[in-house]
Amino acid sequence: MNLTTIIKVNVFVIVCGLMLSSISGCTRDPDLPNDVLLEGPIDPSIVESTTKFGFNLFNEIIISKQNENVFISPFSISVAAAMALNGAVGDTEQEMINTLQLQNIDTDVINPGYAILQQTLQGSDPKVTLTIANSLWGNQEFAFDSDYLRRNTQFFDAEITSLDFSDPGSVNSINHWVNDRTDGKIPEIIDEISTDDVLFLINAIYFRGSWQTEFDPANTRDGMFHLTDGSNKQVPMMFREDKYPFFYSKDFQAVSLPYGDGKMAMYIFLPSTDSDLNIFLESLNIENWEEWISQFNEQKVGVRIPKFKLEYKIELNEILKNMGMETAFSDTEANFSRMVSTEQELTSNLYISKVEHKAFIEVNEEGTEAAAVTGIGISVTSLPPQFTVNRPFFFAIRDNETGTILFMGTVVDPLE
User: Fold this and answer.
1) How many CB atoms lie within 10 A of CB 55?
2) pLDDT: is 413 or 79 the higher one?
3) Which of 19, 1, 8, 9 is nearest to 266 (CA)?
4) Cα distance between residue 134 and residue 44, in whole Å
5) Spatial CA neighbour of 276 closest among 222, 227, 239
6) Helix (H, G, I), strand (E, B) or coil at 273
7) How many beta carbons lie within 10 A of that of residue 300, not counting itself?
8) Could you say which DSSP state residue 217 is in?
9) Are the CB atoms for 49 and 105 separated by under 8 Å?
10) What would the pLDDT profile of 87-121 be if each residue is shown by its tens digit?
11) pLDDT tens digits for range 337-348
12) DSSP bridge partners of 175
């Protein structure tokens, strides 16, 4: 697909399958209790929680991004945050649970709930490509708790990699993984590694789905698109007339465009000419969403939508704080002690230093290609100094009572 037109989109788009995504490779850990099995029906409370979080997050972003293109994968962000949650304790843990809308779910079933949901969605539609990858990239000089790592490999199929964070090549290693897991759509998620960084948690989603019935390129014509500032723009508009799930109200009309076998679809909500997108977004919540979805009925519709391509990035620190997750970002109050091995001498706090999100989507006559990456940086207020004697050095043996130096020397080859 080769699209070059980037437009201001004045319709609200949700890609089902990016709101709720999947993680592959969920298998049973032999060290887990016998009653913890990663199989069975999806827990509807997990679906409800991720959906609530998604709408809350989106609406918080829109507060400062009105009349702008916005495209995110809230489930990608939820999954990355859930991996961090596995290391949180006390107020930090509770605020994260509340922000992720998991407060009504037993903490013992949160991880299995994510795992089952992700595994199920991974194979939802054989005609749609939906892949999820998770990874943890740790500073090799830092000792992480083995149970924390095990939980994230068990329930999130996370790849664990230890890196020399002082090596500039470590940035390239992480970004290469991101680029590979998003089929090149998102080439990087971090620019640098600071001296205080000890861990990066990365979630990557890639989606590719062909329309159940593709749009004929011969029917694509330039059409007028009305921008929010009152001006107009000529954009390529695809057209197809067929039976689609459709919903009409006095405030908006909506259509569902299925992919593959129809288990996933794009829902497009177009505010009426008497309303606008901002007014519609004010009514966007899980209660209204479920009510609207229940009212879609199949009927013959002439669908004309623009081809479009969006690349979006956003830092989520302040947004997540505004949603109630403040303590996790505090370098003095955050408590991620479950991440840390008892062997690690730590005199200062681990905290979330940055949450970065990038997303990509391209829609044309064939279908939709989309990708998203969420990166969470875990830092420490001050790491213990690292002293690795791996080059020629001077040494001395001193009597500390008298100050007498008994021996001194240099070593340029320890094995000579």
Assistant:
1) 20
2) 79
3) 19
4) 23
5) 227
6) coil
7) 9
8) G
9) yes
10) 999 999 999 999 999 999 999 999 999 998 888 77
11) 999 887 766 546
12) none
* SS3 of the chain: helix, strand, coil, percent, to 5: 25, 35, 40
Q: Cα separations (Å) of 33 from 89, 154, 189, 195?
A: 22, 13, 36, 39
Residue 59 has phi, psi (to 5 degrees) of: -65, -35
Kindly report the number of other CB atoms within 10 A of residue 160's CB atom: 14
Per the DSSP assignment, residues forming a β-bridge with 304 are: 239
Q: Which two tokens stand for residue 332?
A: 């003095």
Tell me the angle at which helices 44-64 and 74-85 cross, rounded to the nearest 10 degrees: 110
Q: Say which residues have a Cβ less than 8 Å from residue 415's Cβ, sequence separation at least 6.
A: none
Residue 22 predicted with pLDDT over 80 = no
pLDDT at position 392 over 50: yes
Chain position carrying tokens 């080859």: 413
**Token pair for residue 407?**
């021996």
Bridge partners (DSSP) listed for residue 238: 305
User: According to DSSP H, which parts of 238-379 are helical?
Assistant: 277-282, 286-293, 317-322
Segment holding 137, helix H or strand E: strand 128-139
Query: Structural domains in the chain?
Result: 12-210+309-380 (3.30.497.10)
Q: Determine the pLDDT at residue 27.
A: 34
Residue 79's Cα: distance from chain center in Å? 6
Q: How far is CA 161 from CA 77, 188, 198, 200, 343, in A?
A: 20, 17, 12, 10, 19
Token look-up 């062997």 returns 343
d(CA 205, CA 212): 21
Q: Phi and psi of 213, rounded to 5°?
A: -130, 115
Q: Is the dihedral of CA 301, 304, 308, 313 positive or negative?
A: negative
Helical residues (DSSP H) of 262-373, grouped into ranges: 277-282, 286-293, 317-322
Closest CA to 72 of 237, 193, 172, 186: 186
Which is more confidently placed, 303 or 391?
Answer: 303
Residue that wins the pLDDT comparison between 28 and 85: 85
Compute φ and ψ for 97, nearest 5 degrees: -60, -45
